[in-house]
Amino acid sequence: MPPLARRALARTISGFAGARVMGADGGSDPQLPDQAIYYANHSSHLDFLTIWAALPAELQHRARPVAAKDYWGTGVRKAVVERVFNAYLVDRHGSSSTRRRESDSGVSPKGQIAGMTEVLDAGDSLIIFPEGTRGDGESIAEFHGGLYRLAQHNPEIPVVPVTLANMGRILPKGEFVPVPHLSTVVFCDPIHPKPDEDRQSFLTRARDVLVKCLAEHQRREDAQ
Fold this sequence. Notes:
Blueprint: H1 3-17, E1 19-23, E2 37-40, H2 47-54, H3 57-60, E3 63-68, H4 69-72, H5 75-83, E4 88-90, H6 112-121, E5 125-128, H7 146-153, E6 159-165, H8 167-170, E7 183-187, H9 199-223
Parallel strand pairs: 1-7, 2-5, 2-6, 3-4, 3-5
Antiparallel strand pairs: 6-7
Helix pairs in contact: 1-2
């Protein structure tokens, strides 16, 4: 997609979602690394679109959202997420041993995590949702282990927590027509795996960043 078209699309998505972009310090111009593993809480099928749209123009073409194949993997949806957003489709069901690459953006024959590490080795970023499924937007489920394995693959790549607030109100579970609503995208300070940090400790620490940030946002809303 040409850069001007990409920016126009990003503005359209951000405008529809009412997305207010913030850094950890509350500023509106977060400083982001050239390559990262972005992970976020998940409450809407629009989540990865909103994060992608919130990224600076120079980072968008190298940021590959990880999207569920059972929702995005057919018809017009598949064409859009692969050709426009260069999404990496994953099968949330079945054995990884039976997965096959269906396109340049599709599932790796080596399995989901191995395929995602290939994306990182190529110099691109990932946008992932460690909960594995959508929540209610008010709480954050326990994380699956993939985030830890990706972080361990190359500890030099920053792992950037992204807190999404009010996204579930734009496209609630079971609904197909989005409703415009003010949302917030907070790019928190990057984290890295610590030496000898075990899987559960890292996942707990990574999740706590989002839990605390989301709780702070909810407190501010309640106070208004």
